[in-house]
Amino acid sequence: MQYISTRGNTPAMSFKDAVITGLAPDGGLLLPEHIPDVRERLDDWRSLDFVGLAKELIGLFVDDIPRTDLQRLIEKAYLTFDTPEVVRMVEVGDVHVLELFHGPTLAFKDVALQLLGRLFDYILDKSGEHLNIVGATSGDTGSAAIAGVHGQPHIDIFVMYPNGRVSDLQELQMTTYEDENVHCLAVEGSFDDCQGLLKELFNDLEFKQRLHLGAVNSVNWARVLAQIVYYGYASLRFSSDVRFCVPTGNFGNVFAGYLARRMGFPIEKLIVATNENDILAQFFHTGVYQRGEVRFTSTPAMDIQVASNFERYLYYYLGEDAERLDTFMDRFASTGSAQLDGPPQEEAILATSVATQDLMGTIGEVFRNSNYVADPHTAVGLVSAARFASRGTPVVCVATAHPAKFPESVCEATQKDTVRHPALEALVRKPTRRTVIRPNLDGVKAFIEMHARQR
Ligand SMILES: *Cc1c(COP(=O)(O)O)cnc(C)c1O
Question: In the structure, which protein residues have their CB atom closer than 6 angstroms to any atom of ligand 1?
Fold first, then answer.
């Protein structure tokens, strides 16, 4: 399988190159040149467990890693989860909640980043190269990325986060690793400052090449690919088509569901569930894609205005026409707004946005009625699931984080004293390691240069 860019100006490349490249050089996002149709395999695939399905499905998209090697990487990635099923389906009232948070950092990002970390290690080991991964995080992504690559000989990881503006738990999830390849930079500034620094680092081509900088952000194709598996797996647990409800920020998670549907898994519709940052919900209602000011909510992982993976969806919506896509994205980049001729004619997707007070009410209600504790992000999905209940169609709500990651909101909504998870409690006693740094490009470059173990 070869990979092409949504902007059409990058030569097709292999899977391994796509993994290491991340963003295409023409500024586009990488996609497989065709989407395999799996309908004839579904009967056989129903009997597979999660890891078994992952091997089959991911194998369709990878032809430059020997099959047994790929299978071993997949097995190892999911051994880190605290349940042998990897993901778990729980009945909560009329809704099936698909828990994706059984990995090491208790958020769904582990499903992709545990595999991506092992793919990096495998590819670099073969090529003899060293990669310096640099990222900026407002919370969840940094810890999941570190959990995917800590201790690896071919990678150093540098994560910038705004000092004092991530939760104590989120900071502990990053700063308690003892591995010498993990470098946490507490930047004296905002998340925007961190992202600005990251952009500048990657725009400095001399530095980028000399230090062999790599990224793990949500545009990496392997992340999307790993996420397709749980949509396929969950859909095969039912005897009819299912509807998925997906709390959405960067559109990465729900885009994987969209691809699962295009591959032929029995998925009726996908519900794009946003918080008050509703640019995506607006797009699906009106066809207008317009940036606004970021609003800070109790679902920080979804406080996003410009969803990086949306471009992949739009590429398909526009008939795989890279030129039309380029025009749309250019207009959006220069004016902050671009639009279709009218509301999108999209049968696969419904969309809605959820206010904080509604999701808090739902966390309380679900706890009282079903004795289930949902995290705020998951609750955005639960509110949306109720809005789009459909007779006869099972609804699966994707649960993206364990509630103990967001104890303040969860305790307030449920009137519980505490929400716990042993993995988080263990962190509190561990020593921490981090460097406080000013939001200054030269300072960050000097730090990376000094601490990168090899180039
Ligand atoms: C990252 C994240 C999301 C948003 O996922 P996208 O792929 O960006 O749409 C939702 N919930 C939690 C808990 C997350 O960490």
Answer: 107, 109, 140, 218, 247-253, 301-302, 377, 400-401
Confidence of residue 306 (pLDDT cuts 50, 70, 90): confident
Nearest CA among 343, 349, 351, 344 for reference residue 262: 349
| pLDDT cut 70: percent of the chain above it | 100
User: 169-187, pLDDT tens digit by residue?
Assistant: 999 999 999 999 999 999 9
- Is 109 known to be catalytic? yes
**What's the 143 CA to ligand 1 centre distance in angstroms?**
13
**Is a pLDDT exceeding 60 seen at residue 455?**
no
What is the whole-number distance in angstroms between the Cα of residue 109 and the centre of ligand 1?
A: 7
**Residue 315 contacts by C-beta under 8 Å, 6 or more apart in sequence?**
6, 29, 31, 322, 325
Residue 317 has pLDDT above 90, yes or no: yes
The pLDDT tens digits of the residues spanning 189-224 come to: 988 889 889 989 988 989 999 999 988 888 899 999
94 vs 304: CA distance, rounded Å: 30
Question: How, if at all, do strands 267-274 and 349-353 pair?
Answer: parallel
Mean pLDDT for the chain?
95
Quick one: 38 exposed, middle or buried, by C-beta within 10 A (0-12, 13-18, 19+)? middle
Boundaries of every domain in the chain: 88-107+221-422
Question: Which residue's C-alpha comes closest to atom 2 of ligand 1?
Answer: 301
Distance of CA 142 from the midpoint of ligand 1 (Å): 12
From 16, 109, 269, 405, the catalytic residue: 109
CATH topology of domain 88-107+221-422: Rossmann fold (3.40.50)
